[in-house]
Every structure is written in C-alpha cells, then in structure tokens.
Amino acid sequence: MSDPSFAFVASETEEAQAAVQRLSARYAGVSPETADIIVALGGDGFVLETLHGYLERGVPIYGMNCGTVGFLMNQYDEEDLPQRLAKAEEVALRPLRMDAQTADGETVCAMAINEVSLLRAARQAAKLKIGIDGITRMPELICDGILVSTPAGSTAYNLSAHGPIIPMAAPLLALTPISAFRPRRWRGALLPNTAEIVFDVLEPDKRPVSATADFTEVRDVIQVRVREDASVSLHLLFDPEHDLEERIIKEQFQP
C-alpha cells in the first residue's frame, strides 16, 4: 500500500492521550471512517476494542504500544510513521462466533477475537456437557469454567489457564478447562478450526453459568455454540522486524 491514509485512535490512559496529541500535531490524519489504516495507541486490550469497533469496515489496524503488555503492538515511535505504515506486514485473524441461549429463551450472538469463555456464576462449580460437531465428547465436566481460544488469544487468558500456545497460521482452536475438578486430569484439547463446539449447561438453576465473547457477557446461559466465522477477516499490521510468529515461539520457552 503506497501512501495510505491513516487515522489515530487512543485509549483513555494519560500516556496514550498525550501520544495522540503529539502525533495529530505532527501528521495529517483523516477520519477513522475513511482511513485506509487506523493507528491504535494503547495496549493489547485497546487493539481488540478497535478491531471490534471497526469490524464491519475490515480496515487494517496498526497498534503502537502505549500500554503494558503490547504483545499485539508495534514499538511506539513517532518518526517516519507514513513509511512504517507503507512497509507494514499484514496478519489476518478469524474471529469466533458465539451463539448463547439463555434460560429466558433469548439468543445472544457475539464475536470474539481472543476467546469465548464460560464461567461459573455462583459458589458451586459449573457442570457442562461438551459436544464437538454433533458428537458428545464429554458427558460431564465439573469445573470453574472453560474457554475456546483462537491462535491470537492463545497467549492471553488461555495461557494463564495453562492452555497451549498456538502459532498464528495454525488452523487450530484451543479448548482449555479452568480449574477442572472432574475429570481432574483433563487438560483440554486442540481442535481443527472448522469444529463447532457446543456447551450444554447441566443443572443451570443450581449452578448458573455466564458466557463471555471478548467484551460481551451473557448471564444465565443454558447452551453456547462456538465456531470460527470464516466469513469475517480482521487485519493487524506489524513492522517487519516485529515478527509475531517469532514472538509466539519465544513465548513458549519463557522460564
């Protein structure tokens, strides 16, 4: 992309707000609604918010780190920004689609770039039945919760729950339990990205469960369907030296 137009968006942190003021004074940005690229200033969470916010446009997002983690961010640098954007390399992400049915009969649909998680909503552990592509694979899982992670989300909540890190290009999803009680030694599964996962909540009145797709939370669910939405493609831009795949490999060898 030669001479792309770009717009700045920033998180509410003091650091990000100061950065957007400096960059806006230095470069002639355009409206996010018309930009070829959106430059997101903040942390990984804000990049996810930006991807969700411009989901329908499908505009590439170039993040610059003004936060803490910054795994999905480029290094913050105010020099030669148009040239960096023109040379940036693109990584395509496929989000998860969650269809959650509640005890009241409502169905809530939402997209998740990182993960869909089910969590117990009361003092007692959740009881879940897990089906994969129409086949019951686990009649009963007693746990604090479970999550389905994309490769992009595998280094986030999934990793904290001791799930596997997935290379970005791998056509896989991670199914990871959270504090599994029975079967106690079940560590989860790697599934093809074409799989449809169905969670049925057992004893929902006694053991209520909530479901979350990134920023959308649904309470008192009785069934949740999760699959990769191949019709939606999201795009992150990285400096060539960033090498997201290399960072993912290195993450697996951290002490």
Mind explaining what this structure looks like?
With 255 residues, the chain is α+β, with helices and mostly antiparallel strands. It has 2 domains: 6-93 and 233-251, Probable inorganic polyphosphate/atp-NAD kinase, domain 1 (Rossmann fold), CATH 3.40.50.10330; 96-228, Probable inorganic polyphosphate/atp-NAD kinase, domain 2 (Tumour Suppressor Smad4). Helices cover 16% and strands 39% of the residues. It has 5 helices and 17 strands. It has helices at residues 14-26, 44-53, 81-87, 157-160, 244-251; strands at 6-10, 37-42, 61-65, 89-93, 96-102, 107-112, 115-120, 126-132, 135-143, 145-149, 172-178, 189-192, 196-202, 209-213, 216-218, 221-228, 234-238. The strands form 3 sheets. The chain has a 6-stranded antiparallel beta sheet, with no helix packed on it. Strands 12-11-10-7-14-15 form a 6-stranded antiparallel beta sheet, with no helix packed on it. Strand 5 and strand 6 (107-112) form a beta hairpin. The longest helix is centred in the first third of the chain and has 13 residues, at 14-26.
Summarize the structure.
With 255 residues, this protein is of the alpha+beta class.
Q: Determine the CATH superfamily of the largest domain.
A: Probable inorganic polyphosphate/atp-NAD kinase, domain 2
Q: In the CATH classification, which architecture of the largest domain applies?
A: Sandwich
Rg, nearest Å: 20 Å
Low-confidence stretches: none
Q: What is the name of the CATH topology of the largest domain?
A: Tumour Suppressor Smad4
> What's the overall geometry?
elongated
Q: Reading side by side through the largest sheet, how are the strands ordered?
A: 6-5-16-13-8-9
What is the percentage of strand-forming residues? 35-45%
Order of helices and strands: EHEHEHEEEEEEEHEEEEEEEH
